[in-house]
Amino acid sequence: MYRYDEYDATLVRERIGEFRDQIERRLDGRLSEDEFKPLRLMNGVYLQLHAYMLRVAIPYGTLNSAQVRTLARIARHYDRGYGHFTTRTNIQFNWPALTDVPAILEELAAVEMHAIQTSGNCIRNTTADPYSGAAADEIEDGRPWAEIIRQWSSLHPEFTFLPRKFKIAVNGAAEDRAGLRVHDIGLQIVRDALGQTGFEVWVGGGQGRTPRLAVKTRDFLEPRDLLSYLTAVLRVYNQHGRRDNMYKARIKILVEALGAEAFIAEVEEEFEAIRDSELRLPDAEIARIRSFFGTPSIHNPAPLPEAGEPGFRHWLKRNRRAHRVDGLSSIVISLKPIGGTPGDATDEQLDIIADLTARYGLDEIRVTPEQNLLLPHVHNEDLHPLWLALKSAGLATPNAGLATDIVSCPGMDYCSLATARSIPIAQAIAKRLEVAGLSEAAGDVTIKVDGCINACGHHHVANIGVLGLDKRGEEYYQITLGGAFGKDAAIGGIVGKGLAGDDVPDAIARILETYLQLRRGSETFIDTLRRTGADAFKEAIYVAQ
Amino acid sequence: MKAITANRLTDGRVIYRTAQGQWSTRFQDAQPLDDYAAETVLAQAGRESGIAVGPYLIELGEHAPAGQKWRREGIRIDGPTSGTIRLIEPANHDRAA
Amino acid sequence: MLRSDFAPETDRNAMAQLASGGGVVVELPGDADWRAVGEQIRSAVQVDIRFASFKDGRGFTLATQLRTRLHYQGRLRATGDLIPDQARYLKRVGFDAITPDRSDLAADWAKAEQRFSVVYQPASDAIATITELRNREGDDLERLNARYRQSDALEILRDAIETTWRGRIALLSSFGTEAAVSLHLISRIDPATPVFFLDTGRHFAQTEQYLRTLTERLNLTNLRVLKPDAAEAREEDGDGYLWQRDADACCALRKVRPLARALDGFDALVTGRKRFHGGARTELPVVERVADGLRVNPLANWSAEQIQAYFQTHDLPRHPLADMGYSSIGCWTCTAPAYGGGGLRAGRWPGQDKTECGIHAPAQGAAVRPERK
């Protein structure tokens, strides 16, 4: 993985000094809250219901064991013993004191981490396929490009006060596991006729109040022109994005208002003007960054274990993914124990995960957009000891990709923007489905719960989405069906009137029962839904009412 | 009746405006205010930006927050309803609200 | 408040021109379309861009476009609701001056402007980006190493001392068993070249005696003895047994930090390290970047035989301990004779994993290449 050189380290150190100074000026009154708020957000500090929240950047979701150990220590010393992994593959701490944040940032800097631009109206942490370097269907590893974007976007002089937040994702495989079409910019690595790799560019996707899928703005972008093109897009957005209404300020609204064709023309005009500038990436720099990433090679590959306890074999079936290298496996560490808080991990668990990462994971672990962790490179002969260790830490729930692998935003239990709770709903759904055996029976299906329309929990692109809203002081939940995240991304459709929280688990159970009745052969939930349409499912939701 | 709440600047903790013009982390210490007094005291609280961030009015019932935001304000008093997950044994994972 | 220290030249010119009636000042709102203002600013000596709110960043792009697309070269000033934390961004996109609405924060503005020493992005201020620095330096080092590959040690040192790092280079000597070679080489070029010796307070008496012998014999006139900071030594090593408890901490106290302090004002340090020393030194380049600057290792590719031959040719005195089995000499506390196998430096920190004291620690990241490929 990437390691800082003295320049990277210097910038992060100087940024801590800047934030320490900003806190000081806020405390002594030189900065008003109105001025301080955007500044603290740009360093990942929110003020939530109960306390400040610090969101720490995990660039393209990649961590080593030392970094995980530092996260554990921060959870223990500065927080209440746990952290929450997010759908954009960051981690957030729910209880730090503002006055402790500089000390936390120092701890992070010591392991080459930071909280730069994890919130605010600026370019956010760039995400990538969590299976980068491990996936069999990889065209090229997307992480070097995400790292190049991380550096270019950090403290950008022109794009730090944008109309609204700006999210970029890179995907280097045939399947889209980064969610390109729901990002402000999605970069898909493709190969041209001559076998050269470059980017297919998608712009203007996003979720929230006005979910939109991105439009393709370019079939092929030369890799060395990446930063020129990104600059062109951001420049058009910074000038023309709406600033009068924060709900209409994302680039998706601008793309829609101008029309894709006019938007692309504007970007191309700017791009042509700056293409041959200092923004062009030197080959040596691309090679330098690339040299930090790669796929491990192994000697004497061992076969997959055939024997073992039924629990081990079941876990392998559910949580193991094939690796591009013979003898290696990728393993999902589920952060979705039945009835637990999706995406949470305790300090003890993080310490154990750090040990296992060093011992069995070639010192590399990833965070996935599903709020799970992933050991991308595990030797087959290590799978059984790994399972035993995970099991004793409550980290071997065999439900990766199943209905109980529920994504959830923090909702009203933590978030000051939420209109309803989401975690308790996710917990209740998981328990209901597990008890009925529906999770295992229904196979691959995505369920995502949000506590407000901002959709941090990605309910719009869930096969089954749950959106919590408020009606005169009472929580109620809208169900959406048919959303999807990857290549065939789709925004789910609202099925009808909202449900009381208590009725949601049963409704979801009936949706899955309906699928089991209607499915043909090996159809997944989304296949069946797309074939039959949503009517039968809607009927099932409201049957009892 | 109404009360005034905010978050404390230094650590973000939930605080309430007391009858003595101080801030307390205990909901029981909140001063009940009628509508007129509420606006006056809120304006005063708004000038104390070195202590309290974003003071606002909440509606008060008998011994608990009332009105449309009763649940949100209740969670601010009692903490998350989702349970925290300080547990290791899978058997203990059952902690839903 | 008028901040005119950003670009005093432009400032004076603009003021002079304005005073003589030759030119106009144009004010543009931050949301002006750069394409529509070309005509307007043609005769301007000063353009003011007014920020309605510090959160509205359109003025940053407008300034960039005036500078890069319209090639406006006059004075550019930012006015309006701006906060000190934007100082550097404003300067980077091409503003010469800032007149914020709030005028009582001059010290914060000045501080914010100096906050960062490195940048990732090219911008109108045209300062070198991190990408440029990385590749420029990489190229420079590569070129130097390529050139030095054709040169012998004396030629390398002559170039380094007299040309490439003239006045900004010193020699670090342990006054150990091989030290006479590099000391003799620099005495042939310039005996006034600064020579650093780390006086850890733990050296063998024989080393101190050898230091006097060599300094005199080679007529070295600029020996600088670097001692640990007395206060630090009291605090960290009150009983004098730190070397037993934590050898790394002892080296940090007695070698790493004294050297770091001495290096202020120097860009490069000559060392006598050689590849045949083994361990981390087997791939030692002639010029390398380490954490605190550059190292020049003119003897990197010398063999043990060449060293011996040089001693004989120039009839150099030997370290008194050399004949007693010590092949590499540091502090008496952490040095043993290296008998038999294990390499030349086997007697250093015997029984520990430690092989280097830390004064040549690699640049962060530079030593860590793809772990697994």
From TrEMBL, chain A:
Residues 119-272, 406-541 form the Nitrite/sulphite reductase 4Fe-4S domain. GO terms for molecular function: 4 iron, 4 sulfur cluster binding; heme binding; metal ion binding; oxidoreductase activity. Coiled coil: none annotated. Residues 52-111, 342-392 form the Nitrite/Sulfite reductase ferredoxin-like domain. Keywords: 4Fe-4S, Heme, Iron, Iron-sulfur, Metal-binding, Oxidoreductase. The keyword Ion transport does not apply. Transmembrane segments: none annotated. It comes from the Bacteria. This is Sulfite reductase (NADPH) hemoprotein beta-component.
Automatic annotation (TrEMBL), chain B:
Residues 71-97 are annotated as: Disordered. It comes from the Bacteria. Pfam families: DUF2849. This is DUF2849 domain-containing protein. The lineage of its organism: Bacteria, Pseudomonadati, Pseudomonadota, Alphaproteobacteria, Maricaulales.
UniProtKB/TrEMBL annotation, chain C:
It comes from Maricaulis salignorans. Catalyzes the formation of sulfite from adenosine 5'-phosphosulfate (APS) using thioredoxin as an electron donor. One of its GO terms (molecular function) is 4 iron, 4 sulfur cluster binding. The lineage of its organism: Bacteria, Pseudomonadati, Pseudomonadota, Alphaproteobacteria, Maricaulales. Keywords: Cytoplasm, Iron, Iron-sulfur, Metal-binding, Oxidoreductase. This is Adenosine 5'-phosphosulfate reductase. Binds 1 [4Fe-4S] cluster per subunit. The active site is at 357 (nucleophile). Belongs to the PAPS reductase family. CysH subfamily. GO terms for biological process: hydrogen sulfide biosynthetic process; sulfate assimilation, phosphoadenylyl sulfate reduction by phosphoadenylyl-sulfate reductase (thioredoxin).
